[in-house]
Amino acid sequence: MLSLLIGCTYPPYRYSFSLIDPYVEDLTYGDRDIFFQFIPTAEYIWVSIYNRTDNNIYFVRDKVEYIDPLGESHGILFGWGYASAMKDFLRDNLYLSSIRIAPKSASEGNIWINVWPGPGADIGEGWTTVKDTEIEYIDHGMFPEYAFQGDGMELKDSTFFLILPIGFDGYKKDYEFTFMITDVEISDHK
Predict the structure, then answer these.
(1) What is the tens place of the pLDDT at every residue in 133-173?
(2) Which runs of consecutive H residues, i.e. helices, occur in 120-176?
(3) In this structure, is the dihedral angle defined by the CA atoms of residues 145, 151, 157 and 161, taken in order, positive or negative?
(4) DSSP 8-state symbol, 140
(5) Using CA atoms, how far apart are residues 120 and 180, in angstroms rounded to an integer?
(6) CA–CA separation, 139 vs 151, rounded Å?
(7) Which of 2, 116, 128, 172 is 20 to 30 A from 92, alpha carbon to alpha carbon?
(8) Do 169 and 186 contact (CB within 8 A), yes or no?
């Protein structure tokens, strides 16, 4: 019931994004080894990682960094849903194992800010059997979704960074991306 009231009382922000480094117009990037596609939202960044090589590569999830518009670095969770990604993180003893991407195939999912452990979201001992709804409750959006969460309008023209480490045969390469929030609007529910 509370979410219905919030949704009606506070219209959501809608963000528009550009990839400015490396600069591309369609939020994709590729080199001879790998191809990335991004769809950022207020809640998460959907990312697809396609392996162009003839060997396995590895998405090194425990070394991914999201650097917010204030310059603060955050760890991430990766998966389709925040709760399932958090459960995987807890099940693997607070470690995110690398994801193998076979030759000529892709891995895709959502990058979620991981606020655990941390202020306001330290789930502490005994949470390994937590319910999905309790984990969803501590989900931390990337940007304010509603005005009561912060002034999203202030983020217009700000930048954030994503560092995605990929392990190749014998070495690791950090792919660094700079995004700009090009526009922020208040959604009209009429």
Answers:
(1) 767 666 677 898 888 888 999 999 999 999 999 999 989 99
(2) 132-137
(3) negative
(4) B
(5) 27
(6) 19
(7) 172
(8) no
